[in-house]
Write the structure tokens for this entry.
Amino acid sequence: MEIIVCIRRVPDLSEAEIEIGRDGVSLVDDDLDYDVNEWDNFAIEAAVQLKEQHGGRVTAMTVGDEESEDVLRRALAMGADEAVHLVDDAFDGSDALGTATILQRAIADRPYDLILTGAISGDEARGHVGPMLAALLDIPMVALATELSVEGGTVTVRHEVEGGLERVTRMVLPALVTAQTGLNEPRYVSIRGIRKVSGMEIPVLDAGDLGVDGSRVGVAGSAVTVEEIFLPPRGEGAEMLEGSEESVIEKFVERLQREGAF
Amino acid sequence: MREIFVVVERSGDGLEESALELLTAARSLGEVTVSAVLTGAEVADLASEAARWFDDVYVFDDPALSQPDGDFQSRVLAPLIDRRKPFVTLVPHTNTGLELAPMLSVRAGLPLIADAMAIESCTAQDSSAGVACLRAVRAMHGGKVQARVAAIPAENGVMVSVRPGAYAPPDAVPGTGGAVHPETIPEGVAPRRQYVETVAPEPGAVDISHAEVLVAVGRGIEDEENLEALRSLADAMGAEVACTRPVVDRKWLEKTRQVGTSGVTVRPRVYLALGISGSFQHLGGVKGDPFIAAINTDPSAPIFGVADVGIVGDILDLIPLLEEKIRERRG
């Protein structure tokens, strides 16, 4: 079975001090930590597990700058057989359709049975690249998988729907599935594991190699323009308690009691 | 007048709340007519219900459409958009909309703005000819950054997926009813997904949806072992334990304790949020405007934007202190 897993390198802002760049549309990224997108990590694990069960080959792909090679090495260390890096200045600033278009060009001419992606990326948080890629390839897809199995040329997916319910859906391969967090338990990647794959060749493909029209991707091809990014208005916000640990906890508990919390 | 499409979802036998929220969003775009687009099986009553609210209702009523299927729906709806060329097509940013919107945008050739919290019509900044555009505000990076984005409609318009709850439903049904237009599935378009079953939480599982007081925990709990202190705190308060998605993903607590858009909707009086950043996916499940008390190490966590009272601190240090103080007061 040929499995392609599409991944992305994203900044982790959970503990970061956020600063907006002078251009008003980007973050100052000097001190940001980057890692593989959380959802994508579950997609890689699912791909590797399916290969272990059924045999075949896992190819990890990313659209991203030179630094994005990190997440491909990480995927190789987790058990992907090969990686493909799609990089070109013309790709910078692609919107979801631009990214999906680049991936589609890279995938269309290869054999594939199953394509896995993360359901959302933690940075842009659109959740669009996977379904757009499926539409461009004209294959069926299911979003937000929480369980996944392959049997006899079909993939059966348990996936989240509204109201805390889940639905089970079956598709004939080739198909695309986007991974929800919790789909599996992604294996640990050690520094030693990364070092082991450091010698593996990662083919780099640019717009010319892919036959991608530069005007359809990147900033030029983005139909959606970011005018400005900003920190969310706080509104009233919480009354923040300050002082010694003892005194803030005392005040906090007093407020809870007044509201009838105990 | 410009036509706005609203793709409506079903909820049991009725319209999903988002349908009327998106109607409000559509009407905010100025002088418009608003058309509902409905797919389903045996949905004649639902179409009539939609016609009470919308100016027009395009309905695909077919057994093949009984289950939501973004792939199939996108291929069914694309020709309708191509024919009507609405200025804007609004889709709810739900789990189902997450499949439908991107696929439909590709098939109908529409620029797509994702997960909008507010929309407005605008005139393109770099255009002297006054080209119409659509502007939206959306959240990125787990709600820590927002973006103002704009798209110029293509020939078939522009699509926006709108965050549930971002707009309020209209107060009253408009005076005049709309027209229902039956549509048929385009020739040669058939489902490619097979529906197997719907899975509900196991009966007998804990039900937090009616709990008065919830002690909810997120990533800040760091380790499964630390849940013992949390349970002890909840015991001291006579509260139920709830949590965010990452805690369930790690299988530290049951799925039935997960609060959020893909978990349980709760309506407590008091919500104690411990080590929870406050993503939209989580807070979307907290209804009824409870008193929210929050503790988080990150002073810029979105939870402090909605909480009533907050402490910047490490819950692992503070949970035992909280319990001690509460037990003292309870005597």
